Amino acid sequence: MSKSSVMKIKRVNAVKVENFHQSLYQQADNLFSNYIPLKISQLDNLLKVSLID
To answer: Which residues form the Proteasome activator PA28 N-terminal domain (predicted)?
Structure first.
């Protein structure tokens, strides 16, 4: 059985990691909430137009 190791980090670095985590979460949330649905809609419209022509 392996032991998990505890890593001590400075408060300044912990804040940087937390800020990075929040930024990454916000970017992923925007990607999945806005960008991908928009692209799906655009592709759907493109397919509809190409089927009509």
So the answer is: 13-50
List CB contacts of 17: < 8 A, sequence separation 6 or more: 9
- CA dihedral in degrees (11, 23, 26, 40; nearest 10)? -150
Can you give the pTM of this predicted structure?
A: 0.66
Q: Which two tokens stand for residue 5?
A: 């190791």
- Over residues 24-37, the pLDDT tens digits come to 999 999 999 999 99
